[in-house]
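anyone seen this seq b4? input:
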Amino acid sequence: MDLNCVRRVTLKAADLEAEPVTEEEMEILRKKLESIRKNQRDIKPPDYTNYSKEKVIQILNEQEKDHRKVEAFYRTQVDELEAELCDARELIISLIDERNEVDLELVQVRKQRQDFRTQVQCFEVEINKKNLDKEELNHNLELAEKQIHRLTQQIEEEQQKIEMLNTQTSSLQESLQQEKQISSELTQKLIISNSELEMLNKVIEDMQKEHNELRKHRDFAENLTDKTLKDAITKLSMIILAKDKSYTLTPEHKYLIKQLLGENYSKIIETAEKKYDELNAECKKVRQECANMAALADLWVNEFLNLCSWVENENQCLNEGDYDHIVDDFAIKIPEVQEKFKEAQKTCNAPEASLALAARLSVKDREQSIFTGRPLYGSSIKTDEYEKLQKKLLDQKKELSELRNKLHDAYLQESQMRDEITELNNNILSLKKNSPKVELMRFLQCQASIVEDLIIEQVDDQ
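predicted toks r here
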């Protein structure tokens, strides 16, 4: 009998055989077992009566040796099988443990599978609900699209109005730029006028010195009609001019000179002080009027600069599309500008009166008076420089009146724009009041799209 085949069959019976056992090998083993059984039945026990004791002992010893060989062979096979069975038991135990773990994992997986199925059923129910909601939303969206189409038509009409307003604002910007240029030119002219006023102040200071000298000459010239005064003055001059001191004054001439000049020249001093006070008062008036002109010029410069900065800010707001802010600024600024115009109307007549006293002499006439010695009053008051200043002041008045008219026109245009902007705001508010359904539909549409995306992501993860 093939022992290797027997070993494989036993391992097959214990589910430990790795190699498969064929049916032919099984049939061969069955036939051999049947033949062995038949032989064992047919074999009769040997009769040892006919043999001697020594022969029987020899036969038994040989049988015993054969049995021992078979026993040793089978013991080795049994030991090998026991070792393989021990390994197989350990393997079976480990496999049983693994099988238990796998069974537990399978139970958990089945539970998870059942949970996922329930979740999928819930999601299917939710998806069905969402589909119904989606159908309702689509119906509502169709209605909303119709309303949006109607609103877009209204918005296009409003945009056309806004374009008209933009064209008007651009024209106003151009006019404001022109006014900026005019204001810059006026500031330059005012700077020039300030420099001219400084020159006039210097001229006035020189005039004060010359007037002191002229007062003496004029007082002396008034008494030239009296013959005795002439004689006294001639003798006095001769005494002053004579080197030999031969000329003397009579008592009459001394008394006349004393009456004219006063004791210790007191009359001359008094008249000089009076004239000096008069000229000083006139000089103060002229300086005050010049200061008023300078303050007025600074005021107009500051007002023009503030107006330019305000226009630039409004231009920035207009570029940014902040029409509400522009309307509020115009509503605040226009009354201020009107008040400034009223103040300007009160003070516009002051420059001509203030400069009329200061511009009596030109620099050219003053230089001629120094070299020629002629008096600097009378016909010399109306000089070319004074006439030029008058012309400049008249031109400035005209420019200011033109600016006033332009600002008034700008104010009218601004009021028209403000009315149109209020109409637009009212239309926009009415549109906002009439379109909550549209906003609600948009919100629901966004929420539906978000829910659909979440459901798709969860299904993909599963």
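Residues 351-383 have pLDDT under 50 and may be disordered. Residues 1-44 form one domain. kinda curious what u guys think
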